Amino acid sequence: MPEETVRIGFVPLVDCALLAIAREQGFFSRYNVEVELRKAQSWAQASDKLLSGEWDAAHLLITMPLRFALASAGPPPVNYAFSLSCNGNGLILANALWNDGVRDGSGLSAWMSAHPGRTLRFGVVFPRGTQEYFLRTWLIHGGLTLGERINLAIIPPQEMVGRLRKGEIDGFCAGEPWSRRAAASKLGRLVAESGRLMPGLGEKVLGTRRDWHRGHTLEHSRLIRALHQAATWMADPGNLADAVEIVASKRYVNAPKSVVEDALRGAAAGSPVSGGMVDGRFPSARPNFPLRAHAAWYLDQMRKWGHADATSVSALDLQSICLEGFHESSLSFAPQSPRPSAPG
């Protein structure tokens, strides 16, 4: 029998898929771990409930455990041993910019030169999050940076499309299904995807409180094995239709099945790499492995943009945050053999 219920929070985005699949297909149960999935409406809510102890683990942006560690006077309060997704962010521009000929960062730079009195506002889902650093990377290729004329608005992902419709933002960067949903609704144009610029770069992780991990290594290992099984199940194209039914449902993402299917197909195939790839250091052969190089890239972005000082970044112990060894040992040694599936 499971020893106790593990409370895991998630934000209703397509990359919560492995958590949903592991729950609905019974992979958590097979590894004898009882899981209660709880929905958060924003990344801020997810982080608050995790840090307060209300949740044991949570679907997080990979930058969040890094920020928690930089802000901590003691050991890093959150670590992770499983990557839930790579890439998955899309950058949407409002139709007005697209109709004026903006297709990339260089086009936006030319547009701003032609409209010296205009200020633009872009939505991102969390301060110092992965979407912000993707947006900054896209802008810098056009010779632009965030500043007086390009401002950020922090908006929960499910509100992005509505804000774009109302004209409150000129574009946004968010995870799926929201960029594809905006494009499908013809409210904006998808001009960049993170998988094209930085293929294989880690995006979301299963964050666990440090104290919970230290006291529940057995349960944590079982979670990793169950999620690994879910990833194997999802890799089978024959399971796509069932995966779409689960992930698109009201219990999880609550989005049109066509949008979710498009996002899941893109994740399975990998984003096509075309011109403009800026970094090829992140091979995606093991997309769920918590590679420290991913965390190091984001830390370098934090330092580059003045969000963390070089001394603090250098002093950070990534081994205590990004648990590569624990991931390996969890998959190489079964804490308990899975229970067989029920007949039929």
Commentary on this structure:
With 344 residues, the chain is α/β, with parallel strands linked by helices. It has two domains: 5-87 and 200-332, Periplasmic binding protein-like II (D-Maltodextrin-Binding Protein, domain 2); 89-197, D-Maltodextrin-Binding Protein, domain 2 (3-Layer(aba) Sandwich). It has 17 helices and ten strands. The protein has helices spanning 17-24, 27-30, 43-52, 63-71, 95-99, 105-114, 130-140, 160-165, 178-184, 194-197, 210-215, 217-234, 240-248, 257-269, 292-304, 310-315, 324-332; strands at 5-10, 34-39, 57-61, 78-86, 89-94, 120-124, 150-154, 171-175, 188-193, 202-209. It has a five-stranded mixed beta sheet, sandwiched between helices. Strand 6, helix 7 and strand 7 (150-154) form a beta-alpha-beta unit. It is globular. Mean pLDDT is 89; it is low at 269-278 and 335-344.
Features:
43% helix; 10 strands; 344 residues; alpha/beta; single chain; D-Maltodextrin-Binding Protein, domain 2; 18% strand; globular
